[in-house]
Protein backbone atom coordinates (compact mmCIF):
# COMPACT_ATOMS: atom_id res chain seq x y z
CA UNK A 1 0.00 0.00 0.00
CA UNK A 2 1.27 3.46 -0.93
CA UNK A 3 1.15 5.69 2.15
CA UNK A 4 1.61 8.86 0.06
CA UNK A 5 4.59 10.11 2.07
CA UNK A 6 7.38 9.55 -0.46
CA UNK A 7 9.81 12.46 -0.56
CA UNK A 8 8.99 13.66 2.92
CA UNK A 9 11.63 13.96 5.65
CA UNK A 10 11.65 12.09 8.94
CA UNK A 11 13.74 12.39 12.07
CA UNK A 12 14.06 9.02 13.82
CA UNK A 13 15.78 8.85 17.21
CA UNK A 14 17.67 5.84 18.58
CA UNK A 15 17.56 4.28 15.13
CA UNK A 16 20.76 2.24 14.91
CA UNK A 17 18.99 -0.98 15.92
CA UNK A 18 15.84 -2.47 17.40
CA UNK A 19 12.51 -0.71 17.23
CA UNK A 20 13.97 2.61 16.10
CA UNK A 21 15.69 0.94 13.17
CA UNK A 22 12.49 -0.95 12.35
CA UNK A 23 10.64 2.36 12.10
CA UNK A 24 13.35 3.94 9.95
CA UNK A 25 13.39 0.93 7.64
CA UNK A 26 9.61 0.98 7.18
CA UNK A 27 9.61 4.70 6.43
CA UNK A 28 12.47 4.33 3.96
CA UNK A 29 10.47 1.63 2.16
CA UNK A 30 7.78 4.27 1.65
CA UNK A 31 10.30 6.64 0.08
CA UNK A 32 10.80 8.86 3.13
CA UNK A 33 14.18 10.58 3.50
CA UNK A 34 15.74 10.11 6.93
CA UNK A 35 17.84 11.84 9.53
CA UNK A 36 18.68 9.20 12.10
CA UNK A 37 20.32 9.42 15.49
CA UNK A 38 22.02 7.07 17.96
CA UNK A 39 24.71 7.38 20.59
CA UNK A 40 27.36 5.21 18.90
CA UNK A 41 28.71 6.63 15.61
CA UNK A 42 29.89 3.28 14.22
CA UNK A 43 26.58 1.52 14.81
CA UNK A 44 24.70 4.50 13.40
CA UNK A 45 26.73 4.52 10.18
CA UNK A 46 26.24 0.77 9.79
CA UNK A 47 22.49 1.27 10.12
CA UNK A 48 22.54 4.14 7.63
CA UNK A 49 24.37 2.04 5.04
CA UNK A 50 21.86 -0.78 5.47
CA UNK A 51 18.99 1.68 4.97
CA UNK A 52 20.60 3.11 1.84
CA UNK A 53 20.96 -0.38 0.39
CA UNK A 54 17.37 -1.30 1.18
CA UNK A 55 15.97 1.94 -0.30
CA UNK A 56 18.45 3.27 -2.89
CA UNK A 57 16.39 6.33 -3.79
CA UNK A 58 16.19 7.59 -0.22
CA UNK A 59 18.60 10.05 1.37
CA UNK A 60 19.85 9.05 4.82
CA UNK A 61 21.72 11.48 7.07
CA UNK A 62 23.24 10.69 10.46
CA UNK A 63 23.68 12.69 13.65
CA UNK A 64 25.41 10.71 16.42
CA UNK A 65 25.21 11.61 20.07
CA UNK A 66 22.99 11.71 23.12
CA UNK A 67 19.60 12.98 21.99
CA UNK A 68 18.97 14.06 25.58
CA UNK A 69 21.35 17.01 25.11
CA UNK A 70 20.28 20.31 23.58
CA UNK A 71 23.36 20.34 21.35
CA UNK A 72 22.52 17.06 19.64
CA UNK A 73 18.86 17.99 19.36
CA UNK A 74 19.89 21.16 17.54
CA UNK A 75 22.23 19.28 15.20
CA UNK A 76 19.53 16.73 14.43
CA UNK A 77 16.95 19.34 13.51
CA UNK A 78 19.48 21.38 11.53
CA UNK A 79 20.38 18.31 9.47
CA UNK A 80 16.76 17.86 8.36
CA UNK A 81 15.55 20.22 5.60
CA UNK A 82 12.07 20.11 7.11
CA UNK A 83 10.67 17.75 9.71
CA UNK A 84 7.49 16.21 8.31
CA UNK A 85 7.71 13.13 10.54
CA UNK A 86 9.22 12.83 14.01
CA UNK A 87 9.75 9.47 15.72
CA UNK A 88 10.78 9.96 19.33
CA UNK A 89 12.63 7.04 20.88
CA UNK A 90 15.17 6.46 23.64
CA UNK A 91 16.40 3.54 25.67
CA UNK A 92 14.53 2.93 28.89
CA UNK A 93 16.02 3.58 32.32
CA UNK A 94 17.28 0.64 34.39
CA UNK A 95 15.08 -1.57 36.52
CA UNK A 96 15.35 -1.55 40.29
CA UNK A 97 13.75 -0.70 43.62
CA UNK A 98 12.31 2.79 43.92
CA UNK A 99 13.92 3.09 47.34
CA UNK A 100 17.31 3.17 45.67
CA UNK A 101 16.55 5.96 43.17
CA UNK A 102 17.70 9.43 44.02
CA UNK A 103 17.07 12.72 42.23
CA UNK A 104 19.83 12.03 39.68
CA UNK A 105 18.21 8.76 38.55
CA UNK A 106 14.83 10.45 38.25
CA UNK A 107 16.28 13.43 36.38
CA UNK A 108 17.97 11.15 33.86
CA UNK A 109 14.80 9.11 33.28
CA UNK A 110 12.65 12.21 32.86
CA UNK A 111 15.16 13.84 30.54
CA UNK A 112 15.44 10.84 28.22
CA UNK A 113 11.89 9.55 28.22
CA UNK A 114 9.75 12.64 28.72
CA UNK A 115 11.48 16.00 28.43
CA UNK A 116 13.51 15.23 25.30
CA UNK A 117 10.44 14.18 23.28
CA UNK A 118 8.62 17.27 24.57
CA UNK A 119 11.49 19.50 23.39
CA UNK A 120 11.55 17.92 19.93
CA UNK A 121 7.77 18.17 19.62
CA UNK A 122 7.92 21.83 20.64
CA UNK A 123 10.63 22.51 18.06
CA UNK A 124 8.76 20.96 15.14
CA UNK A 125 5.00 20.92 15.63
CA UNK A 126 4.16 24.51 14.68
CA UNK A 127 6.10 24.31 11.40
CA UNK A 128 4.24 21.11 10.61
CA UNK A 129 0.94 22.91 11.18
CA UNK A 130 1.99 25.79 8.92
CA UNK A 131 2.72 23.33 6.08
CA UNK A 132 -0.49 21.36 6.70
CA UNK A 133 1.14 18.01 7.37
CA UNK A 134 2.88 16.46 10.36
CA UNK A 135 3.19 13.07 11.99
CA UNK A 136 4.71 12.55 15.43
CA UNK A 137 5.07 9.07 16.88
CA UNK A 138 6.47 8.50 20.36
CA UNK A 139 7.79 5.03 21.19
CA UNK A 140 6.90 4.52 24.84
CA UNK A 141 6.19 1.15 26.50
CA UNK A 142 3.45 -1.29 27.40
CA UNK A 143 4.27 -0.34 31.00
CA UNK A 144 2.27 2.84 30.41
CA UNK A 145 -0.80 0.63 30.10
CA UNK A 146 0.18 -2.00 32.67
CA UNK A 147 2.95 -0.73 34.99
CA UNK A 148 5.85 -3.05 35.76
CA UNK A 149 6.94 -2.80 39.39
CA UNK A 150 10.67 -2.96 38.72
CA UNK A 151 10.44 -0.32 35.98
CA UNK A 152 9.21 2.55 38.13
CA UNK A 153 11.49 5.08 36.44
CA UNK A 154 10.10 4.14 33.04
CA UNK A 155 6.52 3.94 34.31
CA UNK A 156 6.71 7.46 35.69
CA UNK A 157 8.59 9.21 32.89
CA UNK A 158 6.71 7.60 30.01
CA UNK A 159 3.34 8.11 31.69
CA UNK A 160 4.20 11.78 32.02
CA UNK A 161 4.85 11.98 28.28
CA UNK A 162 1.59 10.14 27.60
CA UNK A 163 -0.39 12.68 29.62
CA UNK A 164 1.35 15.56 27.87
CA UNK A 165 0.58 14.14 24.43
CA UNK A 166 -3.06 13.52 25.33
CA UNK A 167 -3.48 17.24 25.84
CA UNK A 168 -1.58 18.77 22.94
CA UNK A 169 -2.64 16.23 20.28
CA UNK A 170 -6.21 17.50 20.59
CA UNK A 171 -5.42 21.17 20.13
CA UNK A 172 -7.51 22.32 17.15
CA UNK A 173 -4.64 24.36 15.71
CA UNK A 174 -2.73 21.09 15.31
CA UNK A 175 -5.40 18.47 14.64
CA UNK A 176 -7.25 20.68 12.15
CA UNK A 177 -3.99 21.30 10.28
CA UNK A 178 -3.34 17.60 9.62
CA UNK A 179 -0.80 17.20 12.42
CA UNK A 180 -1.18 14.03 14.44
CA UNK A 181 0.62 12.89 17.60
CA UNK A 182 0.35 9.28 18.72
CA UNK A 183 2.20 6.81 20.94
CA UNK A 184 3.30 3.26 20.19
CA UNK A 185 3.43 1.00 23.25
CA UNK A 186 5.65 -2.04 22.62
CA UNK A 187 5.44 -5.22 24.64
CA UNK A 188 8.12 -7.90 24.31
CA UNK A 189 10.05 -7.58 21.06
CA UNK A 190 13.05 -9.52 19.81
CA UNK A 191 15.60 -6.76 20.34
CA UNK A 192 18.94 -6.37 22.09
CA UNK A 193 17.16 -4.92 25.12
CA UNK A 194 15.11 -8.09 25.51
CA UNK A 195 18.20 -10.25 25.10
CA UNK A 196 20.05 -8.22 27.74
CA UNK A 197 17.09 -8.56 30.10
CA UNK A 198 16.93 -12.32 29.65
CA UNK A 199 20.68 -12.66 30.16
CA UNK A 200 20.48 -10.60 33.35
CA UNK A 201 17.64 -12.81 34.56
CA UNK A 202 19.73 -15.85 33.79
CA UNK A 203 22.67 -14.55 35.81
CA UNK A 204 20.45 -13.67 38.77
CA UNK A 205 18.53 -16.95 38.80
CA UNK A 206 21.11 -19.40 37.50
CA UNK A 207 18.58 -20.61 34.93
CA UNK A 208 19.12 -21.07 31.21
CA UNK A 209 18.37 -18.08 28.97
CA UNK A 210 16.28 -20.12 26.55
CA UNK A 211 14.24 -21.52 29.42
CA UNK A 212 13.45 -17.98 30.56
CA UNK A 213 12.64 -16.96 26.99
CA UNK A 214 10.31 -19.92 26.57
CA UNK A 215 8.45 -19.00 29.74
CA UNK A 216 8.17 -15.39 28.60
CA UNK A 217 6.73 -16.45 25.24
CA UNK A 218 4.19 -18.64 27.00
CA UNK A 219 2.85 -15.53 28.76
CA UNK A 220 2.03 -13.96 25.39
CA UNK A 221 -1.15 -15.17 23.65
CA UNK A 222 0.58 -14.85 20.27
CA UNK A 223 3.16 -17.35 21.54
CA UNK A 224 6.15 -15.34 20.35
CA UNK A 225 8.05 -12.10 20.65
CA UNK A 226 7.33 -9.29 18.24
CA UNK A 227 9.72 -8.28 15.47
CA UNK A 228 11.13 -4.80 14.78
CA UNK A 229 9.79 -5.09 11.24
CA UNK A 230 6.16 -5.42 12.29
CA UNK A 231 6.60 -2.65 14.84
CA UNK A 232 8.03 -0.44 12.10
CA UNK A 233 5.05 -1.23 9.89
CA UNK A 234 2.69 0.09 12.56
CA UNK A 235 4.79 3.23 12.88
CA UNK A 236 4.78 3.79 9.13
CA UNK A 237 0.99 3.54 9.02
CA UNK A 238 0.61 6.17 11.75
CA UNK A 239 2.89 8.39 9.65
CA UNK A 240 0.85 7.86 6.49
CA UNK A 241 -1.46 10.29 4.74
CA UNK A 242 -4.26 7.81 5.40
CA UNK A 243 -3.83 8.10 9.19
CA UNK A 244 -4.74 11.77 9.36
CA UNK A 245 -7.85 11.03 11.45
CA UNK A 246 -5.87 9.17 14.15
CA UNK A 247 -4.43 11.39 16.86
CA UNK A 248 -3.88 11.35 20.62
CA UNK A 249 -3.96 7.55 20.66
CA UNK A 250 -1.90 4.88 22.43
CA UNK A 251 -1.44 1.81 20.24
CA UNK A 252 -0.47 -1.21 22.34
CA UNK A 253 1.51 -3.81 20.38
CA UNK A 254 2.12 -6.76 22.67
CA UNK A 255 0.77 -9.94 21.08
CA UNK A 256 -2.29 -9.82 23.34
CA UNK A 257 -0.34 -9.89 26.62
CA UNK A 258 -2.37 -7.11 28.22
CA UNK A 259 -5.52 -8.80 29.57
CA UNK A 260 -7.82 -5.80 29.91
CA UNK A 261 -10.80 -4.69 27.86
CA UNK A 262 -9.63 -1.08 27.55
From TrEMBL:
One of the Pfam families matching this protein, by short name: adh_short_C2
InterPro entries: NAD(P)-bd_dom_sf, SDR, SDR_fam
Regions that span the bilayer: none
Family note: Belongs to the short-chain dehydrogenases/reductases (SDR) family.
Protein known as: SDR family oxidoreductase
The organism of origin for this protein: Rothia santali
Amino acid sequence: MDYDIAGRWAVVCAASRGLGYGCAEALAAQGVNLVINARTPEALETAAEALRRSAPGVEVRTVPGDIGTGEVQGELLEACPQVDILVNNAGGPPAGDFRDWGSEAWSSALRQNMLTPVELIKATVDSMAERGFGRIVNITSSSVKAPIAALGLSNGARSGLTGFVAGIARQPRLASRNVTINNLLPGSFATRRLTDSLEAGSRDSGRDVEELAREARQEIPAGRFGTPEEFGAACAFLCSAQAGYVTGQNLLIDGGAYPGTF
